[in-house]
Design a protein that fits this description.
The chain is of the alpha+beta class. The protein has a single domain (3-87, 150-281), classed as paralog of FGE (formylglycine-generating enzyme), CATH 3.90.1580.10. The protein contains 7 helices and 10 strands. It has helices at residues 3-12, 47-54, 60-63, 90-98, 110-117, 142-151, 159-167; strands at 24-26, 32-36, 39-43, 73-77, 81-84, 216-222, 231-232, 243-246, 275-276, 280-281. Strands 1-2-5-10 form a 4-stranded antiparallel sheet, with no helix packed on it. The protein has a 3-stranded mixed sheet with strand order 3-4-7, with helices on one face. Strands 8-6-9 form a 3-stranded mixed sheet. The two termini are 27 Å apart. The relative contact order is 0.21.
Amino acid sequence: MDMFLLLLLEAASTVAPAQPMAQVRIDPQGIEQVWVPPGSFLMGSDEATIRELMALDPPRFVVGEFASEQPQHEVQVTTGYWIDRREVTNKTFQMFVGAGGYRDEDYWSEAGRDWLSKQTVGELPRPCLGNVPEHPVASVTWYEAEAYARWRGGRLPTEAEWEYAARGPTSPNYPWGNEFDAGRCNLAGSTGLKPVGSYLSGASWVGALDMAGNAMEWVQDWLGVYAAGAVTDPGGPASGKVKVEKGGWWGAPFIVARPAYRHFEDPPEYADAHIGFRVITP
């Protein structure tokens, strides 16, 4: 048994007595993915959790978003999917660039093509913190992430799919369990990105890495309010102004590393050194 699986089992033991073994594959582009089986979980945060978090004197910007995590509600995910084990890196994003991804309109949505038409293609993607090959690709817009995902034959995960891959049926506060552990993620006190997969002990229940910290991640959905009751395969509002980002980022306070946290401020044309993404495929 390799070291990754040993650490995964150790992390899983803090969440529930039994967790599935990671199912891993390599997709046609050579990207490692893990399988997320269908199932259900509790999405968002309940009132008791919010009260506990408020007692920790969280930053004002976090307090302002607690309401958007409520009501906690059951989500049924009816179809399994493969999700990237790690965040997309500068190295793997360059495969898309080299394949003409910025010039092939088939990979771009109508809104994405409109955004792209206003850019100088030869200057994309934007330089970001040295573009270290094994660091998460950051400073890419939601439109660029969407186009890359289509090139991969997939798409960005919905918010529910992302959160389910991070939390699983037991719905812990963090990918590894209910208590924050700074040694399992690149987060509080960090001064920059780190190579993807540097924190094997921070793996989620399916073996996905860096779902807390390193780069925050674009997901498919527009930001919206939650339904009052149980829902099946939710996809977010049909339109909006801000795309949800999940998972916290390097240097952020630990509370934003909770998978329930919903970052709230960035439209799809925005980009900075804190935001990356990962892809799901059937």
